[in-house]
Amino acid sequence: MSPAYTFSQRHLLGIEGLNRLEILHLLDLAEEAVAVSRQVQKHKASLAGRTLINLFFENSTRTQSSFELAGKRLGADVMNMSVATSSVKKGETLIDTAMTLNAMRPDIIVVRHAQAGAAHLLARKVDCAVVNAGDGAHEHPTQALLDALTIRRNKGRIENLNVAICGDVLHSRVARSNIILLSALGARVRVVGPSTLMPTGIANLGVEVYHTMREGLKDADIVMMLRLQRERMSGAFIPSTREYFRFFGLDAEKLAYARPDALVMHPGPMNRGVEIDSSVADGDQSLIREQVEMGVAVRMAVLEALARNLPNG
Ligand code: CP
Is the pTM above the cut of 0.85? Predict the structure, then answer.
């Protein structure tokens, strides 16, 4: 049976703005999508006749492909807009591109953009539902939802878990969305990293801040590593990647600071040997591949929930 319907949002622009029941509703819906995705026959018809456009201004492997698969599994017509070969390269603005696509009457646009706030801007301009697939260093809501689903399935709960989010917190939309979501579901979240990669005022989000892995990983149930986002860095934030790995890269020695049954996560793409060692990324405590599977399920849940709120949904 479908979970009680408690999701009334028109768009999914961030975790900020969702209440606990809405988050839980999406996670429960995603559980159903996991079951569907594990069947031989993976199709449902809940988005039959609907059009989904993936509009990615930044590179993506996991998010774009999983939204495409999710849309197709739900019966939607899915178009991946190739920005690299589009008129964006001739100087067309985000809004002009969006208005052009809007005229083709899509039902849902999934957008990734380097500027924080891009998805919110788009949502004010178009007639359809908008999903934020990552906007600058602001939010990546479906990543946080898939992370929460992965944690809940492996630990049986989220409440009262110690979650350590480690590395380049400053440039991370994944960290921000996860802090908001996991805190809303009762986890104790801490962030760990060098002070140069820690946003000022991060403690105002209700997290504890640590600058060594030994202290930050103590008693952690979940160790969530972040990618070092060199493409967003405009100066020297770390002395060298070798030095960074020595102090903040997760290897077996540092993982031993956490609980013996701690689980390791990474949103991907990973920089092996920079923020995570291969022995840990591919080891028994790693949930990284399962996160990818949960990504499709969570995106099916989000599309289904938003489709219900479309006109005639
Ligand atoms: N985690 C994540 O957003 O991965 P992609 O950049 O491959 O979509």
Answer: yes
pLDDT at position 1 is: 42
Question: Tens of pLDDT along 250-309?
Answer: 999 999 999 999 999 999 999 999 999 999 999 999 999 999 999 999 999 999 999 999
1 CA from centroid of ligand 1 (Å): 31
For the packed helices 62-73 and 20-37, what is the interaxial angle rounded to 10 degrees? 70
Best substitution site from 57, 61, 173 to test ligand 1's pocket, by max atoms within 8 Å of Cβ?
61
Q: How many CB atoms lie within 10 A of CB 83?
A: 18
Residues 63, 14: Cα–Cα separation, whole Å: 15
The H or E element that residue 108 is part of is strand 108-113
CA dihedral 117, 123, 125, 128 (to 10 degrees): 160
Q: Using CA atoms in the order 49, 34, 174, 138, what is the torsion angle rounded to 10 degrees?
A: 20
